């Protein structure tokens, strides 16, 4: 069974030959090959080659075409500091008062910053992969975009001092996400991942998520759904156990759960959604082979028959150990002998 058919079968909650596997390894692969992270994130040919090499090298089922968490803010005008060995960062907020939003314009994904590079890479990966794998393009969610242009500390104070101002900021960043999603869908990918780590209850609390963030995310997802046919995938890191019932009400097909979330809780709350997780990616950096074996056996003891993808809650560390990754994937192939 081809990887694409395997994932599509999983999305339809039907029998497949094995559980699909998804790990975000491309940054690690680039660094292991001696490619600077800055070059990897700014050269479309290298980005495409690394994505295709990653899925070939590790024989996983999903290709994730993504850059970093600064793309949208950079397109809006934020200064980004690049590194050869780490992902870029934004040293200073673009705005310090939400009223300054009137200075900003929602960027055109086809001409702003590195957004066009991402779109070109996604289209090239779709063309070169030729239907072998399920391809997802990653877009930052509105809460994380807001934190990137406003600063996370400033954002927390804004929520407390001026929740209406926070909502105005969130409405603007939501437009950025929606327009980027519309452009990305034109590249021919199968799914869009809405990656919104700052929305985590570990960062902004359950009550903030429930009262302010969830209604905005739900409305945005519904608008994206109405405008285009695509699978939608939500990834929020950290312990999202308390907000899974809210996420269950979102009109999307796939949800990543991070390592603090129990698989049983996710399966109970997300009965009609594909669950991806809940492996801690740090295991690929410093775990023993026995720990890796124990982790996978525990997953297989809990997993449900349909609607599950073995995966991590976020990206593999850039300094991961390739032997750990390879061993873990080999275990997946022979897990029945270990149980």
UniProtKB/TrEMBL annotation:
GO terms for molecular function: uroporphyrinogen decarboxylase activity. One of its GO terms (biological process) is porphyrin-containing compound biosynthetic process. Signal peptide: none annotated. InterPro entries: Methanogen_methyltrans (IPR052024), UROD/MetE-like_sf (IPR038071), Uroporphyrinogen_deCOase (IPR000257). Residues 6-332 form the Uroporphyrinogen decarboxylase (URO-D) domain. Pfam families: URO-D. This is Uroporphyrinogen-III decarboxylase. It comes from Desulfosporosinus meridiei (strain ATCC BAA-275 / DSM 13257 / KCTC 12902 / NCIMB 13706 / S10).
């Amino acid at each position: 069974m081809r990887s694409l058919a395997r994932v599509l079968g999983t999305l339809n909650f039907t029998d497949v030959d094995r559980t699909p596997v998804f790990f975000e390894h491309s940054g690690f692969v680039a660094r292991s090959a001696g490619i600077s992270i800055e070059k990897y994130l700014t050269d479309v040919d290298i980005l495409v080659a690394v994505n295709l090499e990653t899925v070939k090298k590790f024989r996983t089922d999903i290709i994730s075409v993504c850059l970093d968490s600064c793309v949208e803010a950079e397109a809006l005008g934020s200064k980004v500091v690049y590194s050869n060995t780490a992902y870029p960062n934004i040293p200073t907020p673009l705005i310090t008062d939400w009223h300054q939003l009137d200075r900003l314009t929602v960027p055109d994904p086809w001409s702003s910053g590195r957004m066009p590079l991402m779109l070109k890479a996604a289209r090239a990966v779709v063309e070169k992969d030729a239907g072998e794998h399920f391809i997802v393009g990653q877009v930052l969610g509105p809460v994380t975009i807001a934190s990137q242009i406003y600063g996370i500390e400033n954002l927390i104070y804004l929520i407390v001092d001026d929740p209406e101002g926070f909502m105005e900021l969130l409405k603007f960043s939501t437009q950025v996400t929606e327009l980027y999603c519309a452009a990305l869908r034109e590249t021919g990918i199968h799914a869009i991942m809405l990656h919104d780590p700052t929305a985590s209850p570990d960062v902004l609390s359950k009550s903030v998520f429930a009262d302010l963030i969830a209604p905005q995310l739900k409305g945005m997802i519904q608008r994206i759904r109405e405008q285009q046919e695509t699978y939608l995938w939500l990834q929020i890191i950290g312990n999202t156990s308390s907000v899974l019932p809210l996420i269950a009400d979102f009109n999307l097909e796939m949800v990543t759960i991070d390592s603090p979330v129990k698989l049983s809780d996710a399966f109970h709350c997300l009965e009609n959604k594909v669950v991806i997780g809940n492996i801690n990616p740090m295991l690929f950096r410093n775990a023993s082979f026995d720990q890796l074996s124990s982790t996978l056996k525990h997953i297989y003891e809990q997993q449900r028959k349909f609607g599950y993808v073995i995966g991590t809650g976020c990206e593999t560390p850039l300094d991961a150990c390739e032997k750990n990754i390879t061993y873990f994937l080999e275990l997946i192939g022979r897990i029945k002998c270990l149980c």
